Automatic annotation (TrEMBL):
Gene name per UniProt: topB
InterPro entries: Topo_IA, Topo_IA_2, Topo_IA_AS, Topo_IA_cen, Topo_IA_cen_sub1, Topo_IA_cen_sub2, Topo_IA_cen_sub3, Topo_IA_core_domain
Cofactor: Mg(2+)
Family annotation (PROSITE patterns): TOPO_IA_1, TOPO_IA_2, TOPRIM
Protein role: Releases the supercoiling and torsional tension of DNA, which is introduced during the DNA replication and transcription, by transiently cleaving and rejoining one strand of the DNA duplex. Introduces a single-strand break via transesterification at a target site in duplex DNA. The scissile phosphodiester is attacked by the catalytic tyrosine of the enzyme, resulting in the formation of a DNA-(5'-phosphotyrosyl)-enzyme intermediate and the expulsion of a 3'-OH DNA strand. The free DNA strand then undergoes passage around the unbroken strand, thus removing DNA supercoils.
One Pfam entry name: Topoisom_bac
Residue span(s) of domain Toprim: 3-136
Statement: the UniProt record of this protein carries the keyword DNA-binding: yes
Region feature (Interaction with DNA): 187-192
Residues under site feature: Interaction with DNA: W61, W168, R176, R311
Alphabetically ordered keywords of this record: DNA-binding, Isomerase, Magnesium, Metal-binding, Topoisomerase
HAMAP family recorded: Topoisom_3_prok
Protein name: DNA topoisomerase 3
Enzyme Commission number: 5.6.2.1
């Protein structure tokens, strides 16, 4: 009896599919049942071949061999996971298998994972597609009952392949050109470079900024405090003498109430989460990096089956999801959200109509809870936080608006105008789901400088005498540096960085996709183009110099937006992949020519006097995301080691986080306040017999270990660059 091979993207997902399909017999790298054989990839098992595969001349990096334009691009098996590829290939080619079901992640990259494996193995068996948005048993069973023909997704595969080939052509050509031209470990890419350019542009704005001193005037008129307003409605003046003169003139004088207005206001619940919005909130509230949030989401989706597919760019639901909402509400009657969910069910509330829009959902709908109840005890602290964010946003969309009265009082004294503002809550509405310490972007910040107060009952005949005045000074602030949260916003909506008004329409997709933005930010850190100072992202000298060296149009946000638009057309069959790649080849050749003709220079300003133990060249000191590192300047050598790491161990004197430096018996904790403590003494003080805090353990265990990049099809290629 012939069987169907089910190809999942990861072992954990494969095992769950096998359980539901009753494939219980274990074999090498797969699970076997009566009708199905379930096997899995480990992320990408196949990738585009390195330049060396196209000729010996590419084994040596040289400007003379550029641009590299292979024509038909080759596929190669990733060495680190070649064993699993052999297992999958054997199953694909087995005479027992008559057809294949692609069950990788339901998206462009998931399609590429499976199709490259199938293409490389040379199999041409019938293909069906499993396309589901959650990993619950119910969703899996329904998905297998509604399998789609693989031909429906061929254009999606072509778009994914076009993206991969275009990134290879631009990324590897420009990276080799920059590295050879300037003799430094430099890299560029169509998303990474414009994202870095945003950070460098902001840093330049901060450096050029000249602060100006301003003054505000506040008066105590007995029952309340009022703030001076300029003729144009501003709350401050740059004229110190004017501020002091007004302050003297009004002291002891009567204030006349000229206007007292109370207006009813309301705000509706924010839309459901897409991945980027969730990553932003997780960064603002908990300091999680976008990559960390995505990893947590993947666990909640795959392992706990608690949330729907995370890599979505939609904040809407489709009509067919509506009948499942009550079941999802019952699933979240647990923990902090129990009372709110039960209240919604009891009152039979419907989700806001604005959340349902079929036209604004392409591959996947917004992130919402599944119908499966999750034991909260099984979740880690990080998982609980992310899960609760999604659940609370989901519940908020069933509830009424937040209502309040906006009260505004205006006064006059000595021909000068003063105001006082207050707010009276009428109904919490959807905000009842959240705790009082959660801040919302929809809150009125226009009068942020004005004193927050509860206004007393007032009438026009009341007497108000100025008892005291206060002149306060402040300085205008430069633009804020990007945090990971605000950078995600800029990547999602980069249209304000494009000067050509006619081209802004191309920027609907932003820089990269929700699924790739986290990796781009991590790449900026690992390439030492950006370092973290507190919560801020600051470009390094290397990053600033790179933006000066790359061809101008490569750092414009418009490029990647145009690419995404073309890839979308390919996925819908509106244009051909070959046409797109031909344009990219010409573009890559132009970029290489620009780099070759450059007269600029690159300078290492972080050179140490320490030599590399492998090649003898001087090492560079860089600030990694989690601490300082020494790296070899020679791209062919690639030596790197950790010097220090920022730990969670707190200084006993000032309670700031301490750095752990040194090796062996010389390991010591250092604090910016001057406190120093040997690692051995720290262990003894903490009453530990052989282990420190988890982060210290991880540091010691992973001191020379590179971050896992196994799901990146270009990991092997870019690893060789030692960027």
């Amino acid at each position: 009896m012939s069987k169907t091979l089910v190809l999942a993207e990861k072992p954990s997902v494969g095992r769950e599919l096998a359980r539901v399909l009753k494939c219980s017999r274990k074999s090498d790298g797969c699970l076997i049942g009566d009708k199905y054989i379930v096997t899995w990839a480990l992320g990408h098992l196949v990738t585009l071949a390195d330049p060396e595969a196209y000729g010996d001349e590419y084994k040596t990096w040289s400007l003379e061999t550029l641009p590299m334009l292979p024509g038909k691009m080759k596929l190669e098996v990733i060495k680190q996971t070649s064993k699993q590829y052999s297992i999958v290939k054997r199953q694909l080619r087995s005479s027992e298998v008559s057809s294949v079901i692609i069950a990788t992640d339901a998206g462009r990259e998931g399609e590429l994972v499976a199709r490259w494996i199938i293409e490389k193995s040379g199999v041409k068996k019938p293909i069906k597609r499993l396309w589901i948005s959650s990993q619950t048993d119910k969703a899996i069973k329904e998905g297998f009952q509604k399998l789609r023909d693989g031909k429906e997704y061929y254009n999606l595969y072509m778009a994914a392949q076009a993206r991969a080939e275009a990134d290879w052509l631009v990324g590897l050509n420009v990276t080799r050109a920059l590295t050879c031209k300037f003799n430094a470990q430099l890299s560029a890419g169509r998303v990474q470079t414009p994202t870095l350019a945003l950070l460098v542009q902001r840093e330049n704005e901060i450096k050029k900024f000249v602060p100006k001193e301003y003054y505000t005037i506040e008066a105590d008129i007995g029952k309340l405090f009022v703030s001076w307003r300029s003729k144009d409605g501003g709350l401050s003046t740059f004229d110190r003498e004017k501020a002091e003169r007004i302050s003297k003139e009004i002291k002891g004088k009567p204030f006349k109430l000229t206007s007292l207005r109370s207006s009813d206001k309301q705000t509706y619940a924010p839309m459901l989460y897409d991945l980027t919005e969730l990553q932003r909130d997780a960064n603002k509230l908990y300091g999680y990096s976008p990559k960390q949030t995505l990893n947590i989401m993947q666990k909640l989706y795959e392992q706990h089956k608690a949330l729907t597919y995370p890599r979505t760019d939609s904040r809407y639901l489709t009509d067919d999801i509506v009948p499942t909402l009550n079941e999802r509400l019952r699933a979240v009657t647990i923990g902090d959200t129990k009372a709110a969910a039960e209240d919604i069910l009891r009152r039979k509330l419907k989700i806001n109509k604005s959340c349902i829009n079929n036209s604004k959902v392409s591959d996947h709908h917004a992130i919402i809870p599944t119908e499966q109840k999750v034991p909260m005890i099984s979740l880690s602290t990080e998982e609980k936080r992310i899960y609760n964010l999604v659940v609370k946003r989901f519940l908020a969309c069933f509830m009424g608006p937040y209502k309040y009265k906006q009260i505004k009082a205006e006064f006059e004294c000595e021909s000068e105008k003063f105001t006082a503002g207050g707010k009276e809550e009428v109904s919490l509405g959807w905000k009842a789901v959240y705790s009082s310490d959660y801040s919302f972007d929809d809150e009125d910040t226009a009068d942020a400088q004005e004193r927050k107060q509860i206004l007393p009952k007032m009438k026009y005949s009341d007497e108000f005498i100025c008892k005291n005045t206060f002149v306060k000074s402040g300085k205008t602030k430069p633009p804020a540096r990007y945090t990971e949260a605000t950078l995600l916003s800029a990547m999602e909506n980069p249209s304000r960085f494009v000067n050509d008004k006619n081209m802004k329409e191309y920027l609907g997709g932003g820089l990269g996709t929700p699924a790739t933005r986290a990796d781009i930010i991590e790449k900026l850190y690992s390439s030492f183009y950006v370092e973290k100072q507190g919560n801020s992202m600051v470009p390094t000298s290397k990053g600033v110099q790179l933006i000066d060296l790359v061809p101008p149009d490569l750092k414009e946000p418009l490029l990647t937006a145009k690419w995404e638009q073309e890839l979308e057309k390919i996925s819908k069959g509106k244009t051909q992949k070959q046409k797109f790649i031909a344009e990219i080849e010409k573009y890559s050749a132009d970029l290489v020519k620009t780099v070759k003709n450059s007269s600029a220079e690159y300078k290492h300003d972080n050179m140490t006097k320490k030599t590399c133990p492998d090649c003898g060249k001087y090492l560079l000191e860089v600030n990694g995301k989690k601490g300082k590192m020494l790296v070899c300047q020679d791209r062919d050598c690639g030596y790197r080691r950790s010097v220090s790491i920022i730990t969670n161990a707190r200084c006993p004197e000032c309670h700031k986080k301490m750095e752990l430096r040194g090796e062996g018996e010389k390991k010591s904790f250092y604090c910016s306040c001057g406190y120093r403590e040997k690692y051995s003494a720290f262990k003894e003080r903490r009453g530990q017999s052989g282990a420190s805090k988890r982060d210290v353990q991880n540091y010691l265990r992973n001191q020379n270990k590179k971050e896992d990049d196994s799901n990146n099809p270009f990991a092997a290629a870019f690893d060789k660059l030692n960027l």
